[in-house]
């Protein structure tokens, strides 16, 4: 059994990872932690930060700093989840890719030979409405999808 876990850094995706690890442990499966980083998010944050600093010439520097921080943060989270998998005796790996979340998630979920895809119900914003990525991809993913709240 191969289980794909979509990790975005939110507490919801971390909770989804914990459920996936428990399932993999019972079923002797493999967990693949998968995250997509979209440079457009860093650019938007940098632009907003530049607007507040009244120095738009700093936007490129802000973008690079934010982008580096995004990569560092998700890698740190993935490494912690990987260590947890190993402590639980679960075979696990992770992949971090760059691009459009919707496109990369659909590509991975539908071409990786997965038995199950696990994701959090909400994204990083934590809004009470179901996550926007979830709304975009859940009906287009071939394998069964488990949504964790």
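Q: What amino acid sequence fits the structure above?
A:
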């Amino acid at each position: 059994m191969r289980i794909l876990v979509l990790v975005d850094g939110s507490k919801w995706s971390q909770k989804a990872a914990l459920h996936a690890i428990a399932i993999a442990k019972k079923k002797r499966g493999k967990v693949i932690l998968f995250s997509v980083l979209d440079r457009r998010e860093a650019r938007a944050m940098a632009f907003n930060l530049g607007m507040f600093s009244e120095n738009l010439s700093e936007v490129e520097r802000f973008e690079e700093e934010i982008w580096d921080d995004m990569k560092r943060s998700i890698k740190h989270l993935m490494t912690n989840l990987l260590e947890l998998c190993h402590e639980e005796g679960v075979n696990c790996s992770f992949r971090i890719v760059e691009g459009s979340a919707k496109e990369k998630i659909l590509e991975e979920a539908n071409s990786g030979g997965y038995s199950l895809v696990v994701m959090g119900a909400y994204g990083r914003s934590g809004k009470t409405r179901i996550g926007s990525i979830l709304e975009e991809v859940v009906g287009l993913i071939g394998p069964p999808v488990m949504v964790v709240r």
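Q: And what stands out in the fold?
A: The CA atoms of residues 26 and 90 lie 9 Å apart.
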